[in-house]
Structures are given as structure tokens and as C-alpha cells.
Amino acid sequence: MRGHESPLLLHSKRLFQQFIVDAYSMIESERLRFIRNNQPKLRVDKYSALHESLVRGEANAVPAGQRIILPSSFTGGPRYMFNNCKDAFAICKYAGYPSYFMTITCNPEWNEVKRLLKDTGFKPEERPDIISRVFNIKLNELIMDFKQGRFFGKIVAYVCTIEFQKRGLPRAYIAVHASVGQAKVT
Fold first, then answer.
1. Alpha carbon distance 84, 81 (integer Å)
2. Number of domains the chain is built from
3. Residues with Cβ < 8 Å from 75, sequence gap 6 or more?
4. DSSP 8-state secondary structure symbol assigned to residue 71
5. In the chain, helix, strand, coil percent, each to 5?
6. CB atoms < 10 A from the CB of 127, how many?
């Protein structure tokens, strides 16, 4: 909370949420525009052989229009997701199958959320920024506890992914591989 700035935007409730969505859309639009306008700089020529094989008919069909290749660093793109999936498989190949699978879901009734919203008059669903920040802090603390061996002993590897539910609350899925015979029961 910043005391020296106008809280007008934050007090706009649903309009604040619309502003966040619009701002995100503009940022993503600019990222995609940059990728489209800088295809030669992004070394898209490496994929020309792939495109030529599609044109020769070695696949089902070639979509009409200009082909834009998204780099693997574009968050949410198919190559980004595929690379993350391959990384998770590589971790499983190295460390073995996960020992534990956990989920953590944000709870708008957490004391930290209530404390931050106490004097503002807002409901938790009106401040998704606070919900996400508190969830992220709690998730990072949980993962640090795993790494320090507080729950399952020595952790060999872990994979974590976060999604948002229909109600707008974040949820994390965590797969943990602990060393055999090291688990602590507390």
C-alpha cells in the first residue's frame, strides 16, 4: 500500500479488474507485434525447411496467411509449454517418479489477506493483486520448507505449476521427489 499515491484506481472495484485485463492485453499485443515485425532477427529462417515440407504436402494442410513463429521464450506459447513439459520429463528421468503430489489453493480467508483488506472496505475478490501476492509468498515459503528438508527430508527434485480457477483464485500443483527413507513425519 502506498500512502502518497491516489487510490482512485484501486477504489474502482470491477473497473480496476477491467483495467488490469486491458493492461495485460496491451502488453501481450505489443509482445506479439514485436515478434511479428522482427521475425528475421529471431532467426525464423531456421524453420524454412519445416515450412517447405508443409508446402510439399508432407503434412495435413498449410494454414493460409503469413506464418509467424513464436519463440520458445514467449510465455504461454506452444513451444514454451512443450519445453516446460520436456523439462519436467527430464527431471523425472533423472530423479525418478515423484514421491508426493500436492496442491495448494489460495484461500481468501487467510489472515494475511484479511489484514491487508481490513481498513480498506474491499472484499478479497475485488483485489486480485493482493490475493496473488499473498499466494505467491506462501507458495515460495512452502517450497523453501521443502528444499530445507522440513517435511520430506532431502528433496532431489520438484516441479511446480500454477493455474487460476474459475473463481480467480490461484492454485499450485507440486510434484516432489524425496530421497528414499528420508521422510520425516511431523
1. 5
2. 1
3. none
4. P
5. 45, 15, 40
6. 20
- 12, part of any domain: no
| Burial group, residue 106, by CB count within 10 angstroms (0-12, 13-18, 19+) | buried
Nearest alpha carbon to residue 1 among 176, 180, 168, 127: 127
Mean pLDDT calculated for residue range 57-76: 67
Q: Is residue 52 part of a domain?
A: no
Here the cell at position 21 is: 485485463
What is the mean predicted confidence (pLDDT) over 114-130? Answer: 86
Residues in the chain: 186
The answer to whether position 154 is within a domain reads: yes
What is the domain extent for residue 129?
74-186
Given a contact cutoff of 8 angstroms between Cβ atoms, the answer to whether 158 and 176 are in contact is yes
Q: From the centroid of its chain, how far is CA 66?
A: 29
Instruction: Enumerate helices (H) and strands (E) in the chain, giving the number of each.
Output: 5, 3
Helices (H), the chain: 14-37, 48-55, 78-95, 111-117, 128-147
| Number of C-beta neighbours around residue 140 at 10 A | 10
User: What predicted TM-score, i.e. pTM, was given to this entire model?
Assistant: 0.74
177 vs 98: CA distance, rounded Å: 4
In a domain, 63, yes or no: no
Q: Which three cell numbers stand for residue 176?
A: 516432489
> Tell me, what's the pLDDT at 28?
94
